Amino acid sequence: MMITPSIEQLTKGKFNRYALVIATAKCARIVTDEYVAQREIAEKNIADKKTEKTIASQIDKDIRDNKAVENAVQRLYRGEFSVVVPQEITSEQLK
Asked: What is the mean pLDDT of the chain?
């Protein structure tokens, strides 16, 4: 299964696909952390009898139903996350 948008649409000629892979992995980690945090809150609410809702219904639908990488790619495409490529250091800057 291919995830859209394409690599070309995501990079827009500003950086290479390897930078995109690193950025996507970091974003996916953030998405996973969001899921874990929301699940912990949902479990606590149920344990404290603050709600009758199920755990799944208390977690954001996108985070719950889609894979972390797919969410990361979509967030990069929408501009919620951005790829920051460090500047190259020249030998004169090291002096």
From this structure: 87
